[in-house]
Specification:
Strand order of the largest sheet: 2-10-9-8-7-3-6
Bound molecules: D-malate
Number of strands: 17
Structural class: alpha/beta
Shape: globular
CATH superfamily of the largest domain: Type I PLP-dependent aspartate aminotransferase-like (Major domain)
Number of helices: 13
Helix content: 25-40%
Oligomer: single chain
Order of helices and strands: HHEHHEHEHEEEEHEEHEEEHHHEEHEEEH
CATH topology of the largest domain: Aspartate Aminotransferase, domain 2
Distance between the termini: 57 Å
Number of domains: 2
């Protein structure tokens, strides 16, 4: 008789954004006349930039001719893309990362969920609280998190690093030493950022304690302040303690196209074993690469025209962030984020819980956001709005909230 992976049964409820999607669907079915504005999941709304479309069209044509047709992509991704990434995201910023340390994938969500596989089951993880739920849930599935306490909303074997208004939504170095540390900056969900000096402290801490930092830099394109690093590899010593995850979803609008990459420096080792070799083995065994057409689209991101068009798109979303931030602040809400990230983090009014405010906003303003408590216990009493809507919808949503 077969048995299932019982760790899955420990997961409370469904994935946060599936729960929200279901609630909104049910509300919408019951109130078909209501026009709902979705500022919940961080999904982009602007069409792909012309430079991307052009690259995709060209690649589609190539696939239709014998001489230029491509089958399976190389395990780690096409060289043309890995070279463009190494130059555009690393060498140009003074980071010592080479093309063969980059693994192209179909997105950072999968990589952030899968990366834990190359670590021992008894590794102890540390996460920010609140946190992007994928990091925790995938470790639950792997049996690494202990037991869930429904009262506190925490796992017995996870080290939580609260990110609250008291510490400016920036975690303190944990007292109990973890093996794996998940950090995401600019942060999802709080929209906070980390300075290079502060990140250097984390890198030093990880090197001192033999820990690995899994650094999710999916929102790097939204950084507007000089003191905020674009990559953990801007910090000295990061090559021996860090893995970096990057996405094309937020900087280039690829949420539906799917492309991302993971950087594992060759110097990152456990004894004699290189993590690069383990991830390469996993990639080769379980993955057949992002499509050629998509990788060519990714290459276009790094062209001069690509950079120009995409920075205009980022500016469009950041203008939405300003509309949300200023609109809510003007209406008396306590707000943060939105300066180096496309997320606004607001305190729910009065004594409302995050889910109460979710229901209130859905029913009274027909606006969807994300309850802070869905990201962890320290998110209780907070709420996230995304700047990825259209400008028109963003303005209307804020007007509706202000009118409540
Ligand atoms: C979010 O809303 O937190 C993100 O869109 C989720 C993701 O990128 O997977």
């Amino acid at each position: 008789m077969f048995k299932i992976n019982e760790n899955y049964l420990k997961l409370p409820g469904s994935y946060l954004f599936s729960t929200i999607g279901k609630k909104v669907r049910e509300y919408s079915e019951a109130h078909p006349d209501k026009e709902i504005i979705r500022l919940g999941i961080g999904d982009v709304t602007q069409p792909l930039a012309p430079v991307i479309i052009e690259a995709m069209h060209k690649a589609v044509d190539e696939m239709g001719h014998q001489e230029t047709f491509r089958g399976y992509a190389p395990d780690l991704g096409y060289e043309f893309l890995r070279d463009a990434i190494a130059e555009g995201d690393y060498r140009s910023r003074g980071c010592d990362i080479s093309a063969d340390e980059i693994f192209v994938s179909d997105g950072a969500k999968c990589d952030s969920g899968n990366i834990q596989e190359i670590f021992s089951e008894d590794c102890r993880i540390a996460v920010c609280d609140p946190v992007y739920p994928v990091y925790v849930d995938t470790n639950v599935m792997a049996g690494r998190t202990g037991e869930y306490d429904a009262k506190t909303g925490t796992w017995s074997n996870v080290i939580y690093m609260p990110c609250t208004a008291d510490n400016d939504f920036s975690p303190e170095l944990p007292k109990e030493v973890p093996d794996l540390i998940y950090l995401c900056f600019p942060n999802n969900p709080t929209g906070s950022a980390i300075t290079k000096d502060r990140l250097q402290e984390w890198v030093d801490y990880a090197n001192r304690n033999g820990a690995v930092i899994i650094y999710d830099a999916a929102y790097e394109a939204y950084i507007s302040e000089e003191s905020v690093p674009h990559s953990i590899f801007e910090c000295s010593g990061a090559r021996t303690c860090a893995i970096e995850l990057k996405s094309f979803s937020k900087n280039a609008g690829f949420t539906g196209v799917r492309l991302g990459y993971t950087v594992i420096p060759r110097d990152l080792k456990c004894g004699d074993v290189s993590l690069h070799a383990l991830w390469a083995r996993r990639h080769g065994t379980k993955y057949n690469g992002a499509p050629y057409i998509v990788q060519r689209a990714g290459e276009a991101v790094y062209t001069e025209e690509g950079r120009k068009q995409l920075s205009a798109q980022v500016a469009y979303y950041m203008n939405n962030a300003k509309v949300i931030y200023e609109g809510l602040k003007g209406a008396g809400y306590t707000v943060s984020g939105g300066v180096n990230a496309p997320y606004i983090w607001l305190k729910t009014p009065g004594a409302m819980t995050s889910w109460e405010f979710f229901d209130y906003l859905l029913e009274k303003a027909n606006v969807v956001g994300t309850p802070g408590s869905g990201f962890g216990p320290s998110g209780e009493g907070y709420f996230r709005l995304t700047a990825f809507g259209t400008y028109e919808n963003t303005v209307r949503a804020i007007d509706r909230i202000k009118a409540l």
